[in-house]
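Lab channel / #folding
Pinned by the channel admin:
"Please post every new chain as: sequence first, then the structure tokens as a reply. Keep commentary short and put observations after the output so the thread stays searchable."

First post following the new format, from NK:
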Amino acid sequence: MTLRRYARPVTLVLLTALVLYPLAWMLGSSFKSPEEILNNVSIWPDVLTPGNYTEGWSHFDVAFGRFFLNSFMVAVLTVLANCTSCLLAAYAFARLRFRLRGLWFGLMIGTLLLPSHVLIVPQFVMFKAFGWVGGPWPYLPLIVPHLLATDAFFVFLMVQFMRGIPRDLDDAAKIDGCSPYNIFRYVILPLSRPALVSTAIFSFIWTWNDFFRQLVYLSDLEKYTAPVALTLFIDSTGQSAVGPMFAMSVLSLAPVFLFFVAFQRLLVEGINTSGLKG
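Reply from TO:
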């Protein structure tokens, strides 16, 4: 009995330590000199080097804060685009009646099986023809697709949530003379807050951490986002500013961590009420 009593907490502590070890190592390395990073295998530095943060912040011709602002702008606009378009698409699939609804919903779910990297080349060619690549608005290829409800995961999440809303509310609204638009505005939209919050949190985290798509479409240094800018600490000659890179990596994780901590309760509530729980 004693072994069973302590086995679970000990296992959880070990798993937590295993998950947090890379973060702790990165945090400790952000205070190490380049030589100590290569030679010291311990987490914490022997000699603190806080200058990595100031050096990393001003390492380029553009202050690293500009990259943070670019990432924040792209993430916020993506969140707004996803929440708006996916909510409208989910309302159509969950509450409206139209021909071939099941077929279109199945095709939408089928896009989850398609790797996003497969679409990069045709999307790049199309956006290049639109003049969006390398133009004055290089963020359009990163934001506009989300206005078209292309993230099937969020559409599915909201559909599952709306299916849990009693249809009696729709019928009562129809008796009061509400159109489908008013039913969406006064009934579905206020009750969809948990699903919207979950969509906003996931969209923000995934967009902030996105690297590949931003690397493909952004070519101007002043337009770079934080994940792309981190690669600049290692140049083509093989020389690298490892300490400043770790320092800026720690700062880049801070917005995601704070965003998740602030909305953790709403995220769990949204998942539990959307039909995605086990």
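NK: The mean pLDDT is 86.
TO: also worth noting, The longest helix spans residues 64-95.
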